[in-house]
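Running log. JK asked me to keep both predictions on one page so they can be read side by side. First protein, sequence followed by its tokens:
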Amino acid sequence: MPLFRRAIATTVPLALSALLLTGCGSDDGGGGSSANGRIEGEISFQTWNLRANFKDYFNELIEKFENRYPDVEVKWLDQPAENYAEKLSADAGSGDLPDVVNVSPDLAYPLAKAGLLMNLDKSEASARFKGEYTPEAWRGNALPGLDGTYAFPWYLNTGPLFYNKALFRKAGLDPEKPPKSFDELFAHANAMAKTSDGKVATLAGTPTVEDFGRYGVRLTDADATEFTYNEPKGVELLTRYKELYDNGGLDSQALTMTPEKAGQRFLEQKVAINPGSAHDLETFKRDAPSLYENLGITDAPNNTGKPNMYVMGLAVNERSEHKAAAVAFAHFVTDKENQESFAHEVAIFPSTRGSLEKAYWSRDDGSDESRVRVAAARMLKGAVNYTPVVMSDEMKTVLQNEVAKALQGRKSPQDALDDAVEQSNKLLRQS
């Protein structure tokens, strides 16, 4: 996948909709060969926009696997980032879904719902590997209403927050105690807005569905058949953001803020807290040395005790003609040795048990890259993926637009969220 992707549309395109209407379900027993059979045959392996930067890595990985299993031949396919969901849908509709396919939970969901992905919890051939992965990662690939995990956990990602200690000091706040809960966040933001006379905001952007999740809002029902974030706790969060927007704790440009603009506002020290990366640290060192010298790193505030994470997996085609080989290869790519190796190639995190306890992810060696890596790795303990697997980009835009109306005072927080839920549930029923 694009390694720093936030989300992709999760609507069920036409080809998959047709499969669903024919009655194919996740519990139909599937097809293809036995996962407990002989490890042999030619299998296809599809990644998501990885060939350009990691061609040598994957070629060597495949060669290593084929040497271990000489009766297997792996054909590597790689698809561009654009229209990946549509490509998966087209392959599924034509019966050409690869044997092993790179998916995130939102992309796995419609495929699994159509009975096209192997339920790893239901087969001894795959379930026996569950203990090799962190509980968070295995749960992160479980799909609501489908009773199981449908992809081997691959790599994880999360993002720390940067905060400006100098701005904290000016506001009379302890620079060594960044906010951990939303109560603390709003208290800090109100204090900073007051002491700076509205010239310094604490936050740059409006709340997303992840913020609602971290606040403790119930986002959907148990089977993800309808959205529920208009419950009282959701209204409470949006009401507090409205108050923050009115008093200057939320940047005045928040309604049109992009990640790039937010980063620039933080660089200019007009915003006190913002997501960041090791690359940003290099920029701060060069362009804003006073900010660099006063930079703190923390995780995003939450009321649940569970940080947010992004998860990626490798799913096995339920109808694969060589399912035993596909399971063996998906497990091989995601085993501890190979996950750790890949995570040294790029800034991602392995999902295998014990990996994040190793020095590379647990000890700060003084470099900017290490500083961010260790901080982020620490957050993955107990982390969850808050974004509902059924929430498409269109549904996220609906929420964003209704949130904006509430912040502008054009609707009450309750009415805005009621309308967002109504529109999103309508889209969900159409998918």
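And the second, directly underneath as requested:
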Amino acid sequence: MPKFYGYARVSTQDQSDRSLELQLIYLRKKAERQELEFVPIQEKASGSSFDRPEFQRMLKMVQAGDYVGVYDNSRFGRNTEESIASLKLLHSKHVNVMIGESKIDPDAPRDKLLFSIEAAISDFYRTELRMKSESGIEMAKKDGDWIFTSRLYGYRQDESQTVHIVEEEAKVIRYIFNCYDRGESIYKITNDMNSYGWRTRTGKEFHASTVRRYILKPIYMGYYKEKGSGGQRGQDSAPYEFDNLVKSKKYPPIVDEDLWYRVFDSYRGVKRKHAVQLQYRYSGYTLTGLLKCFYCFKLGKATTYVHNISTVSKKQDKLYANYVNRTHLKSCGQKYHTFREIILEDLFEFCFYLVFANYREIEQIAEEHIRKIQNAIGDLNKQKNEIESDIKNLKKDKQKLIQLYLNLNNDSDVQNQIESVNQEIKSLQQSKSLVESKITMASSAYESVGESYQFEKLNDFVLLRDIPYDYDPNVEQENIAVHKKKKRDIYRELIQNAWVYNEKIVIRYTNTKTFIIQLERNRGRVVQTEFTIKVCFNGRYQYTVKFDHKNRTFEIVDVDMKKNVDLSLKDISPEKVYEGHKQTIENDISEVLALAREIKATGNLDY
């Protein structure tokens, strides 16, 4: 006998269990209506990813003929691509999928379209919610009311959101600062602490990296940086200035300001006898956090490539700026890849220019999105009108029942019918509100289509200076960091994901433009400077380009003829058609590169 799997989900562990209960009650009633055995599945996990334990367990349990039901599309997931992929997987197993009151028919194009649009709207809502959340966090940081999400060593937080100093842990923090101020090394301080039997909150020994993080946290003098990642890596690494720090209203100081600044300045600028120490630098690099390891991510560990400055040797005063990832899983075969900063950043920049090389593609994607959204808005308006019509008819029925109730001298059966009609009207009004909110979000998405890929974005990108830190020590480091952050923000807006996968870098933009870059294994200090890049658009291969970083040149080495062949050119040989398409692509790329050089030279956009 087929089963009905009711899947209920909330986003975080802190959310009330009441929401899960209400979802399961609703789904249980649907199963009872269809006289099916009900199997409840519930979990607390983000909808941005489908790597959820209970969801994956349900996918393994379902069999042909079973039903999978969710309260609405947002409970299924808030990632458009993965929502569609999971729906296809369920349909391939001949499993029936019900979203709310609607059953998704795999053979009905309209059902597929509506599911795709609702998934896109859920994705849009998640992004908008994140932006609003970030805005609220920024306001709290400016006002000094920010409370770190991580459990800071030395502090504890009670149920009323009041932060208190933990004296036992504060003693350790003061010991670290006082010892470092006397000139002791981080490693000596760490070893001494462990020899005294002092342990972390989890009962483990202290590590030098942990002690290093403590001396870089301004929160221990009662301040925090307004812009940063809340006491984590970015917060620790940023260059602190007096006008950059906000006095916390929540965290009392453990050490005084003079001691903290003495220790920080000593760590940042003083070369000590016991260690080879480089000048402290800001970690706001262009690609930090953008490039991730696909293999580790799929196994549940989101490992990203971050910036690193290394020396050739202790005797040589030469620096190498690289992007490295030291947190791969042991079984990952991609942990040997290290990318030279200037090469990787130029490679990403070249791919960025290729996105703008053919503006017809950008217009095509924008038109396709607009058409889909318009159809969705039309369907939603039709659904809204049907609900309004049903509400109107129910209100007429209600008036008749009230009249009958009065005529029959308060008959209890009629009263129950009136209450039932009231419940139906209330349910339909809630459905109408939900449809109206979807129409509003779809209209907002309609207005924003195409804005990301205007040529003003290319202009902003080109005008941002991207100078490696290590090539000019006299350049103001913080000013370069601001430019790099702005450039990274543009990448984050336009790049959907960037993975290192199977000896390749795969960069996918939100307009479906995809670049597959072939990597070579590191051979000692020999660095790869020539890259073969396969370019795809809308899921289809277009051409292959070879990028030579050393000589700053490119060459088209292959073109897809299946899509580009013109049947009207019967008198022209295929070789000439092939060369013609190659030349067209080369001209488009050369044109956008020339435009970038012109913008750099003049500071103006003229296209």
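Observation for JK regarding the second prediction: Residues 229-242, 274-283, 467-475, 564-569 have pLDDT under 50 and may be disordered.
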